[in-house]
Amino acid sequence: MRRTIISIVVLWLALFAGDHALAQQEQRGMREFRVAIDIGHTPATPGAMSASGEMEYSFNRRMAAVIADDLRRHPGIAVTLINEAGREISLLQRGDVANQAKADLFLSIHHDSVHERYKVTRRVDGRNSRQSDRFRGYSVFFSDKNAEPAASLEFAKQLGRAMREQGMTPTAHHAEKIPNEGRDFVVPEYGVYRFPDLLVLKRARMPAVLLECGVIVHPDEEQELNTPERQRQIMMAVRSAVLNLSTWLRETRR
């Protein structure tokens, strides 16, 4: 009888120790790092039209899937791909999905255009196309009205730096003092802009960033963005920035 009681006590202590270890892991931020990847736009509201006539949504969906698949293969990272089915969804709802998933990070994937004053009309495959050779490159946006502005800026810098390290160059055209531009170019070397009222970033209750992967109205850059090599570079930059942010958050929240 005594041996039975001792065995029960030992088993209880082991279970308690296991639960306590799990609790400590949670406190140390050692649970899965949850990333919400937002596919910008929808089939019905597809965003910008590229130089060849392809809609931005197609680029966003393809690139978001590449990023999500890569992150899911990395131990310790869980991914929520927002609006994978391509339904109509508002900017507020995108943030709500990330909030409900208890994501640690929100990343919205987009592809860029330029102001109409810089576009020219060219004939492509029997139709008119609005294009521009003037600007190319990526941009990273964060909102200081997000629930975690310091962490959002940190991730924006990490992502911009990683994009540079992969051989890509940021574009400065969003800082130009013209209508619908004039953004605060806070870290030019990494392509980081402050956009306080960007609704999709304000809604998220975790660090949030929007990445413009490149300028699809630029004919040459559009072709590059369609190559596996460029997509791999963007994928690797995102992975590096996500891992760096997860470490940064653990260290700052101890």
Describe the protein:
α4 (149-165) runs antiparallel to α7. This protein has a single domain (30-252), classed as Aminopeptidase (3-Layer(aba) Sandwich), CATH 3.40.630.40. Residues 1-29 have low confidence and may be disordered. It contains 7 helices and 9 strands. It starts with a helix and ends with a helix. It is globular and about 60 Å long. α2 links the parallel β1 and β2. Strands 2-1-3-9-6-8-7 form a 7-stranded mixed beta sheet, with helices on both faces. The protein has a two-stranded antiparallel ribbon with strand order 4-5. It is of the alpha/beta class. It is 42% helix and 20% strand.
Concise overview:
The protein has 254 residues and is an alpha/beta fold. Helices cover 42% and strands 20% of the residues.
List the helices and strands and how they pair.
Layout: H1 2-27, E1 33-39, H2 56-72, E2 77-82, H3 91-100, E3 105-112, E4 120-124, E5 127-131, E6 139-142, H4 149-165, E7 184-187, E8 192-194, H5 199-203, E9 208-215, H6 219-225, H7 228-252
Parallel strand pairs: 1-2, 1-3, 3-9, 6-8
Antiparallel strand pairs: 4-5, 6-9, 7-8
Helix pairs in contact: 2-7, 4-7
Content of β-strand: 15-25%
CATH architecture: 3-Layer(aba) Sandwich
Oligomer: single chain
Order of helices and strands: HEHEHEEEEHEEHEHH
Overall average pLDDT: 90
